[in-house]
Amino acid sequence: MSEPGNLFETSVEILKKLISIQSFSGEETSTADLLQEFFQQSGMNPKRKANNIWCVSNNCDSNAPILLLNSHHDTVKPGNGWQGNPFEPVLKDDKLYGLGSNDAGASVVSLVATFRHFASQPKIPYRIIIAITAEEEISGANGISSILDDLGSIDLAIVGEPTEMQMAVAEKGLVVLDCTSEGKSGHAARDEGVNAIYCALEDIEFLRKHKFEKSSDLLGSVKMTVTQIKAGQQHNVVPANCQFVVDVRTNEHYSNQQVVAFLQEHLKATVIPRSLRLNSSGISLDHPIVVKGLSMGIKYFGSPTLSDQALMDFPSIKIGPGKSSRSHTADEFVLLSEIREGIDTYINLLTDLNI
Which helix (H) or strand (E) covers residue 316, if one does? Predict the structure, then answer.
């Protein structure tokens, strides 16, 4: 490994700067500026589209396979309960506190260090693209999906998210459904009207009880959860409509489109999906990167949470420093030892990898 200490120390300094700059999804201009400037000063010739920044290594054969290293620099908004300033990086012993430190700043800086390591080698067996992208937390149109055509044909991607440096080889998809049950208004004191809430309850009970036949060894069953409901204007009027929202997490056996078509057929309510593009993803356990990871003692698992993997139609794994359970929490932190481990593991995983 070239200059491991320098890679680690620089990574920590970049992460502190990222924490100190507000970068809510869709508002990442300043952190994009920071990353672009760092890449330029490091001689990596960055390209930019909106708030997405990427660089390409050229120390390989012209027909070499392409490896994408990707993570995101946007964050959610800080929730209640923070003891300090979410935008002030605070280091206590091994813990670095700050919004986005764990999700996904640690992955960002570890992947950047990995890119710097391989870009400095005389020759490597693949072309590496490092892409630090925007709007991941909202699966926005101006995130990774907006630059995939610019990046070209990708053979393999590593997506940096907090997984304790374990390999997520499958990931559940997501489709959010806006449902409306129709009734007929009437006076609550008389036996008239059709109560839309009662109509909705029949569909909600179906959603609660229905089990899709095909389950996954890694991801389990399709999970449907009613998360919001709204009906009625005043206490003495039978509501004419009832709106409810369903969060559906799909496994690899069902596309989002298949699940939506099934529910549109079996529910009485009108069912409208917000998007169909966030499908389940997975990679073969025989893929060289999974095999290499297993040989290093890295475990694999199926992830219930969504990432930009859902927007990639090429093989990918999700792996990064930090713990998923710390994401989106008050007093978010990452361990400096996790960043050091992340850099070392990424570099060892990719060294002599044949993709």
Answer: strand 316-318
Per the CB < 8 A criterion, the answer to whether 166 and 321 are in contact is no
pTM (two decimals): 0.90
Alpha-carbon gap, residue 218 to 252, rounded angstroms? 9
pLDDT in tens, 27-54: 999 999 999 999 999 999 999 999 999 9
- The one-letter amino acid code at 189 reads A
| 8 A C-beta contact, residue 187 and residue 238 | yes
Please state which architecture CATH assigns to domain 4-171+280-350.
3-Layer(aba) Sandwich (3.40)
Q: Which has the closest alpha carbon to 129: 107, 157, 109, 106?
A: 157
219-265 confidence digits (pLDDT tens):
999 999 999 999 999 999 999 999 999 999 999 999 999 999 999 99
- Among residues 136, 131, 149, the alpha carbon closest in space to that of 48 is found at 131
Q: Within 13 A of 205's CA, how many CA atoms are on the CB side?
A: 6
Spans of all domains in the chain: 4-171+280-350, 173-273
Give the angle 188-192-196 at the CA atoms, nearest 5°. Answer: 75
Do 305 and 173 meet the contact criterion of CB atoms below 8 Å apart? Answer: no
In this structure, what token pair is assigned to residue 307? 């990432």
Q: What is the CATH number of domain 173-273?
A: 3.30.70.360
